Amino acid sequence: MLDKLKAAALWVWHWITVLVAMALGVLTVGIEYLDQLMGVDFTQVMSKERAGEIMFWTAVTKALVTAYNSQKAKT
To answer: What is the model's pLDDT at position 61?
Structure first.
């Protein structure tokens, strides 16, 4: 059971940037559709710019952690 949990966590770690991008993409597009259907401005909840910032910082964080682990493994 613990091995399966570790494997699932490793899979999420490898795909975190893609998963975040997909989730935020669906959220921003969904908000645009709700705005069109209901006439209520939901862009304050999640704008495209904010979604882009979150995806960018997710990728930067993952890159920094990977670089740190790489350096740690060398020593």
So the answer is: 92
